[in-house]
Every structure is written in C-alpha cells, then in structure tokens.
Amino acid sequence: MFGTVLLIVATLMHVYVFGRTASVPFVAGHLPRKLLVGTGLLLWAAFVVARFPGHGGAGTAAATLELFGMTWMGVLFVTFVCLLAMDIVTGFGYLLPRLAPSLRGWALLAGGVLSAVALFQGMRPPVVEHREVRLPGLPDTMNGTVVVAMSDMHLGTQLGAQWLRRRVAQIRALHPDLVVLLGDIFEGHGPIRSDLVAGLRGLSAPFGVFAVPGNHETHGFGNGNNGPSIEATGIQVLRNRWIEVRPGLVIAGVDDLTAGRRAGQGGDPAARALAGRPPGATILLSHTPWEAEKAASAGANLMLCGHTHGGQIWPLGYLVRRVYPLIDGAYDVNGMKIIVSRGAGTWGPRMRLWRPAQILSITLRPTRYDQPRRLKIS
User: Fold this and answer.
1) How many CA atoms lie within 13 Å of 224's alpha carbon, on the beta-carbon side?
2) Is the pLDDT confidence value at 18 over 90?
3) Which residues contact 202 (CB under 8 A, 6 or more apart)?
4) 257-290 b/e with 16+ CB inside 10 Å = b?
5) For residue 264, what pLDDT band results from cuts at 50, 70 and 90?
6) Which of 33, 301, 341, 362 is 20 to 30 A from 128 (CA-CA)?
7) Residue of higher predicted confidence among 224 and 247
8) In the beta sheet, which residues pair with residue 133?
9) What does DSSP say about strands 178-181 and 145-150: parallel, antiparallel, or unpaired?
10) What is the DSSP string of 46-65?
C-alpha cells in the first residue's frame, strides 16, 4: 500500500513540476517541449526502477541506481514545494498573469539551491546532542551515568560498513556507560549483510549494548530473513522485556508499535514489557513515539524513541507531526521524560533540510542531584 501511494504521489509531482517548468519563459525559449517531456519520463522511470526493482539490490550498479533515483525523489519534492508555494502566492497565475511564469523560474532556482543544502546536510556526520535527565529512583552511585542513543541508521546499500565504522568511532569517543539502538538499524530489504553485523561489534559499554526492532525490522535482526543475527555481536535485543543492568537501573524495550498497529496488534506493550521489574529507575526503548501515556502509567521514567527522522526534509515535518505528535526533542508526559531522536541516518534520499542527523548523549542524574554552585570571584 505504501509503495502504491508513493508511486502515485511521485507521478503527480512529476507531472506538476515539469508542466510548470514548461511555462517558464527561459525554459520555453531554450528547451524543446519534446526534450522536456522526455527528460521527465526518463527521471520518472529512474525513480520507479530505483524504488522498486532496484531497492535493496546487490552490487554497485543497484546501489548507484538507488542513490540516483532516491536523490532525484528528494530534489523533486523540494522543487515541488517551491513551485507550489509560488503558485499559491500568485493564485496559480490568475493574480499576476504576466509575472507568474517568470516567478516560477525563481521558484525552480530556489528548489535547486535548497536541494543542494539538503544534500550537504544529509551527507554530514550526525551531530552529538547532549542532554541531562533526572530519574526518580536512580541510585546516587549512578549519578553521571552516560547513555548514548542512536536511531534510524538504515544500514544497507546507501549507508554501509565505512559509514558505520565512523558512527561507532563517534560513539566510543563519548565514553558511554550504556549504548541503546532505537530501531531501523538496517534498511530491512533482503538478508542482513555480514559486514554490517561485524561493524556493530565495535559498540561496547560497561552496562551493555541494547536494541529494539524498528518498522524496517519486523522479522527481527536476521533471525527471520536468513541473515546473521546481531545477537551474536553481544547486542541484547529487548522485545517486550526488561533487564536490570545495574541494581537500581532497568532497561526495557518493546516491539515496534507502528508495525504492531499495522498487524492489528493491540493491548499495552509497555505494561507487558515492564511487568515484574525490580524497584529503581526505568528506561523504556520504543522505536515509535506512541503510547507515551501508557508507558508513563506503567512506571517508565524515561522513554527513548526514533522513527520520525524529525521530518528529515522540511516541510515534511508538518505532515509527520499529524501522525506522530512527538516528532523531535524532549517532552514531559505525565511526569515521564520522553526524548525522540531525529536519527543518525536517512531514509530514501541522502538529504536533510533543517533537520540534521543526530546521536544522543544523555547524562542521568538522581532527582536529588544539585549541581554545584559556581563561586563568584570578584
């Protein structure tokens, strides 16, 4: 269903963008209409092949085709938004009939500039965002515990072993006590590549490395699609269960809520995952930032999520927020802190517009913690 909707939307955007481009005086005066139509059809075909037959395919050719097709999808979307905005301002040409065609040319230029910015931001390494959270029940001896969280790497044809090695080095440089992976570690098309699983072996922390599955990992991390399993690397997968990593600190995880809802699963996964846990501070990992109220009622003190990419390419965030109101950043839900990561990787095009990729470094404090006052020296 998602693929069908995406194809229909992409087709309509191609028709609109190339139809409006043909009305720009400079384009009309320099490019034959047949060439413009042919270019549009060729780019549409490249997107279709990259998104469907080529998506997740093996080999350099498939990876190159997918990179080109997905990049074009991102450029098309940004250009579409610029042209549509200009059409709205000009009443689709009725308010300024003489100026509207030339203004569409400026909209095309703006689309190109913003696409270049989005490509630059999408190729940049994730930024490290530092946060401090006070957890009820956290022992004083664990004051200053550092949790590093990474979400939505989407490892596969576009983001491979070399990119992963750099992210592992980034995380190790933060000297975490605990590392958590918040789902969509892999793109999820075909068997998981052994070199990517091997790259995850570089992740280590005194309290352990934990992961929950995302919507791209509905069959688990290799067990259901004939690939190597990440459990062999020492990463512990939390599927609706908890683990006490140290006395007074519990880590729990649930299966992806988006995938569960699509499969018609109901109930209260957070309550099941947290049932029977010992007293102390509790961190709940959930790929999708849904059911925060239920998690708070079940006793979670901190909920870490991903999935939304923060919208990834502006202004998609406004649409994403309608489905996922907790889209990016920190929130307080009935006394429980929830932090939603924008993700370290990208889905589709290697593009981000005003939503840089992110790795979270979270310092835990007991609720009684008081930061030492700085002496004022006169």
Assistant:
1) 9
2) yes
3) 165, 168, 169, 172
4) bbbbeeeeeeeebbbebbeebeebbbbbbbbbbb
5) confident
6) 301
7) 247
8) 364
9) parallel
10) HHHHHHTTSTT-SSHHHHHH
- Cα 317 to chain centroid distance, Å, stands at 12
Phi, psi of 209 (to 5 degrees): -120, 130
Looking up tokens 């939390």 gives 238
Task: Please state whether the peptide bond connecting residue 315 to the residue before it is cis, i.e. omega within 30 degrees of 0.
Answer: yes
Distance CA(89)–CA(202), nearest Å, equals: 52
Helices (H), 90-228: 100-123, 161-172, 194-200
- What Cα–Cα distance (Å) separates residue 219 from each residue in 103, 159, 195, 210, 326? 49, 21, 19, 17, 26
Question: Which residue bears the tokens 């270019």?
Answer: 39
**Residue of 55, 338, 321 whose CA lies nearest to 182:** 338
353 touches 314 (CB < 8 A): yes
| pLDDT at 21 exceeding the cut of 80 | yes
CA distance 221 to 226: 10
57-83 confidence digits (pLDDT tens): 566 777 888 889 999 999 999 999 999
State the pLDDT confidence band at 358, using cuts at 50, 70 and 90: very high
Give the pair of three-digit tokens for residue 3: 């693929």
Question: For the purposes of burial, counting CB atoms within 10 Å of the CB of 236, is it exposed (0-12), middle (13-18) or buried (19 or more)?
Answer: middle
Residue 271 has pLDDT above 50, yes or no: yes
The reported pTM is 0.92
Average pLDDT value for the chain: 91
Two tokens at 227? Answer: 């690939």
Is there a contact between 175 and 128 (Cβ–Cβ < 8 Å)? Answer: no
Q: Which residue ranges form the domains of the chain, and what is each CATH number?
A: 2-123 (no CATH), 127-366 (3.60.21.10)
